[in-house]
Write a structure and sequence with these properties.
Blueprint (H helix, E strand, L loop, with lengths): L8 E4 L1 H5 L9 H14 L3 E5 L5 H13 L4 E5 L4 H10 L6 E8 L2 H6 L5 H16 L4 E7 L6 H13 L4 E6 L6 H14 L7 E6 L6 H10 L4 E4 L13 H10 L16 H12 L16 E2 L2 H9 L18 E2 L7 H10 L6 H17 L5 H8 L1
Parallel strand pairs: 1-2, 1-8, 2-3, 3-4, 4-5, 5-6, 6-7, 7-8, 9-10
Helix pairs in contact: 2-3, 2-11, 3-4, 6-7, 7-8, 8-9, 12-13, 14-15
This protein binds 3-methyl-2-oxobutanoic acid and zinc ion.
Length: about 375
């Protein structure tokens, strides 16, 4: 498979790592609906599920393969023959199938999860990739818990799986353990020490246990990764995965720093798809969540509101329209100034002279101190 080195591949795992969250399970019909939205959003790869895990997951991968034409459909497996056989069967209708197989790479996992040795795990990794390759051209290998793996051993494993046919090598920080500079250095080390690394693309797969998933993914891209694995709203195991909308907007805002890497993502769909995933998965988005939280474009303190109303770029590095919101919110609270009150009154058609505005503002503060939310009715009661 040929990769474009100037493109950042967005691998969405909302329907696999995201859907593993308790209470977030979706029906196949709901998954198809989200997959079609993800296709319109412009993701490059959709991880559709883990077919061997249940008949329902198997069926979802089958149906998503039929429903989606242009995007790569990926199925997860462990490094064993049966998982891979089942995944290949589930992918049989996919136009662009990918098998994502892998095994633990840290000594912790090797010893306490597999009760095995580095040598034996390496053999299993290579055998799994070879077996997957007998079914599909596009094979991604994940070195689980790479965030805590010994670097030299990780490099040895990655070199061996690329030689066995892996076209994408995923370096998961499964436990969200790394600091950005550590994770970035890990990726750089692999680009410098894996002899055949130019035959594969490096993928970042980060978890958010320390709130660093996005920062770590970005550090990976700065050090040579060209695929990022992420989910809508950052949902996923425990504290979640890297948030797709955060990575895409960082790339957009700082495009030059990333050498103008291309991406197919249509950010104007973010608000829509975030709300849809949140509703369908019954997983509320925290109000202060970057990009898609309710308050991400809401200005509430007087100093910010005044500065924003003078020139929006004083307090706006992303235009709300760019993420599919109509406009920024100027929230009226007891911390708001006259400028914000004037703005809202004018929106309602009331243009007050300076003296009337000053007088109205005094009465506004009394209401605002007593109430959390000031609505249009409150404003009208002030001016009528
Ligand atoms: O976090 C992880 O290591 C994973 C792998 C299965 C890719 O989700
Ligand atoms: Zn994961």
């Amino acid at each position: 498979m040929l990769h474009d080195p100037n493109h950042l591949y967005i691998f969405d795992t909302t329907l696999r790592d995201g859907e593993q969250v308790p209470g977030c399970q979706l029906t196949t019909i709901e998954k198809i609906e989200i997959a079609k939205d993800l296709e319109r959003l412009g993701v490059d790869i959709i991880e559709a599920g883990f077919p061997v895990s249940s008949p329902g997951d198997f069926q979802s991968v089958v149906e998503l393969s039929k429903a989606v034409d242009d995007v790569i459909i990926c199925a997860l497996t462990r490094a064993n023959k049966n998982d891979i056989d089942v995944a290949a069967d589930a992918l049989k209708y996919a136009n662009r199938p990918r098998i994502h197989t892998g095994i633990g790479s840290s000594d912790m996992h090797i010893q306490y999860k597999f009760n095995s040795t580095r040598e034996e795990i390496l053999e299993r990794a290579v055998a799994a990739v070879k077996h997957a390759k007998s079914y599909v051209e596009d094979v991604e290998f994940y070195a689980e818990d790479a965030g805590r793996a010994d670097l030299a051993y990780l490099a040895q494993m990655i070199e061996a799986v690329i030689a066995a046919g892996a076209t994408v090598v995923n370096i998961p920080d499964t436990n969200g353990y790394c600091l950005p500079d550590q994770y970035g250095a890990k990726i750089k080390y692999l680009t410098e020490h894996v002899k055949n690394i130019d035959q594969a693309i490096i993928s970042a797969h980060c978890h958010n246990d320390l709130g660093l998933a996005t920062a770590n993914s970005i550090a990976a891209v700065q050090n040579g990764a060209r695929q990022v694995e992420c989910t809508i709203n950052g949902i996923g195991e425990r504290a979640g995965n890297t948030s797709l909308e955060e990575v895409a907007m960082i790339l957009k805002v700082h495009n030059q720093s990333f050498g103008n890497l291309s991406s197919n993502i249509d950010s104007t769909m973010f608000t829509y798809i975030s709300r849809k995933v949140s509703d369908m998965m019954n997983m509320p988005v925290q109000p202060n969540k970057a990009i898609v939280g309710r308050n991400a474009f809401a200005h509430s303190s007087g100093i910010h509101q005044d500065g924003f109303l003078k020139h929006r770029e004083n307090y706006e590095i992303i235009r709300p329209e760019d993420v599919g919101l109509e406009e920024a919110d100027i929230i009226l609270t007891a911390r708001s100034g006259r400028h914000a009150l004037k703005h809202h009154l004018e929106r309602l058609g009331y243009h007050l002279d300076k003296e009337t505005l000053a007088n109205t503002y005094e009465r506004f503060l009394i209401i605002a101190d007593a109430k959390k939310d000031i609505n249009d009715e409150d404003l009208l009661s002030l001016v009528k």
